[in-house]
Amino acid sequence: MKIGVIQLCSKLEPVHNLKIISDFIKDAVSQNIKYLFLPECFYSMGDGITQTPYLVDPLKKNEHYQEIRSLAVQNKIFLLGGSAASILNGSVVNRAYNFTPNGDELNHYDKINLFSCELGSETRKKIIREADLYTAGSTHSVVVANELKIGLSICFDIRFPLMYQKYRSCGANLVTISSAFTVPSGMAHWHTLVRARAIENQLFVVAPAQWGVHNDKMKTYGHSLIVDPWGEILADAKDGEKLITAEIDFGRIGEVRSAIKMDGV
Fold first, then answer.
1. From 11, 155, 219, 241, active-site residue
2. Is 41 a catalytic residue?
3. pTM to 2 decimals?
4. Quick one: pLDDT band at residue 125, thresholds 50, 70, 90?
5. Is 117 among the catalytic positions?
6. Phi, psi angles (nearest 5°) of residue 263
7. What band does 130 get if pLDDT is binned at 50, 70 and 90?
8. Nearest-5° angle of CA 174, CA 177, CA 179?
9. Which of 111, 130, 149, 219 is catalytic?
10. What CATH architecture is 2-259?
């Protein structure tokens, strides 16, 4: 199975982002890719301090919801894992959406572990607290898309390994970690954390990421990854907006689990 991951430098305005995403999706379709993964905040990227005004409403299915859904429908592709700020009963959550080629919404996931950091020196400290913008989710979520059984997570979740052990115990064969990692933490930790989640749980990890300068306050690391159950990096987007692809062989999971037995996980 061939899958695709889009790495973006999303801006605040959805119109800008949708045009770039649409072009990459067309490229993916031309390569006969049926399953495409998007990063965190793909629809609208704020500055980490002020909430984006472009909130998806999954209950009313507003125009922003329809714009995302139409990407899957118009291109007849599974659109998976990417998140967008969403309004839900008066609260804003960071929700990962999943659509079939027919536009049916599969299970969703609201980010549980909200990012909190203080990076830099005392005179140039950068403080980000997602809890000032979002309400945390509370429920893990698995999506089934034909052969794929996907455990959903978003960015800061990657630092909480028990979450991924739960997904393995639920029978997931792949987890997705849609992300917008800061540059300092990305340089230090990103590859190690993504590979660790794959190695620990002996499954595929797809980690679509934001990259570049989004505004005067937000800059992200990039390096979207596709990693196999042995921890081998099958694709690394490095820098720039781009589509990366990899062939997924689910037989590899059985091989790795037979070689290194972790039946107690």
1. 155
2. no
3. 0.95
4. low
5. no
6. -65, -20
7. confident
8. 160
9. 111
10. 4-Layer Sandwich (3.60)
